[in-house]
Amino acid sequence: MKEIKVNIPGNNYSIFIGKSIYQHLPGIISEFNQNRQAAVISTPPVSGLYLKKVTGVFDRRWKLIHFDVADGEQSKSLETAQKIYTWLIENRFERDSVILALGGGVIGDLAGFVAATYLRGVNLVHLPTSLLAQVDSSIGGKVGVNHALGKNMIGAFYQPKCVVSDISVLSTLAKDEYICGLGEVVKYGIISNKMLFEKIENNFKRLLNFDAELLEEIVLTCAEIKADIVSKDEKESGIRAILNFGHTFGHALETYFQHNDLKHGQAVLLGMKCATFAASKMNLIDPEKVNRISNLIDKFEINLPANSRPLNAERLFKIMQTDKKVKKGKINLILPVAVGRVIIKSVENEKLIAASFNII
Ligand SMILES: NC(=O)c1ccc[n+]([C@@H]2O[C@H](COP(=O)([O-])OP(=O)(O)OC[C@H]3O[C@@H](n4cnc5c(N)ncnc54)[C@H](O)[C@@H]3O)[C@@H](O)[C@H]2O)c1
Ligand SMILES: [Zn+2]
Prior knowledge:
This protein has helices spanning 25-30, 44-55, 78-90, 105-117, 131-137, 175-192, 194-202, 204-208, 212-232, 247-256, 264-281, 287-298, 313-321, 350-356, and strands spanning 2-6, 13-18, 37-42, 63-68, 98-103, 123-128, 142-147, 150-157, 162-166, 331-338, 341-347. By secondary structure, the protein is of the alpha/beta class. Strand 3 (37-42), helix 2 (44-55) and strand 4 form a beta-alpha-beta unit.
């Protein structure tokens, strides 16, 4: 089991990564929890597979309770949070107790939000089970729920006491969910780690076929990168923004295709291709590097829905301007200048941005 430290002032914590590591949970949790009371929040596809693996490692002295929410993004809501609060109060869940968020990013964000707000904050441990959650959403303390008028509109920065990422559970992920996680993995390679990018390039088939050894190395590297970035900029006032590489274009694509036909990670992969094209049009990156990035993204063979071509670049650009990260009409793009390095640049050339959608 490997340990990565996240150094957030006043809230240092560790990320543990390895295969079949839930057995270490009681020991890890006992470091900060005295009353041996824990609530597992999960969702049926995950709890059906892994709840016993988690609860089975605690001895009889522990009081464990468990709550499942319906699977999917619609559970990331105040309504669901409200149900969990009621259940916690009914179960006399106390301030020193610990919430274990067992699931993908939806469960992590929702259970994290509940942990941040119930009794003004109780202990939180993330047990991320999707690749996206292990490399991205469980690290950095962003928790929250959606509002009918917008995604992630209600939330907080709330750091967990620790994150325990068990690589073994990734084997049951649906293929498209796995690809979504890989989209974020490619992102880390392009924004900050050429060696990671090369590892993905050189081992693409092994990675796609779920090679646990390789995956463990990759999850570790990605977690290190994200931990490092959020340690430098917890509240996203500076460098943390580079984590949005591919996301401004990607979010527009997600909205354009109404989220159903194109999943987040797939949209981010395509969004990174658009951003790379924009960078090349601004002469910020060599053509050879542009090809390298595009070729790797093409290997994922993301198919856009039938009859969707030609894309309406103008409409996509309009959607992009409504992104909550676009401030006062200025589009701040994260643009690659090399494999492993990006810059943040305010771009006003609307035509160039819109044209970048045509590359996909
Ligand atoms: N907090 C952050 O910093 C942050 C960052 C990125 C994304 N997010 C949020 O994360 C969410 C997306 O997360 P996600 O992609 O993990 O989606 P998700 O939580 O919906 O999980 C995807 C699917 O895989 C299933 N699943 C999860 N682990 C499994 C396993 N081991 N075996 C079988 N099935 C499994 C889930 O039940 C679900 O059906 C979004 O709500 C997004 O806003 C948050
Ligand atoms: Zn993302």
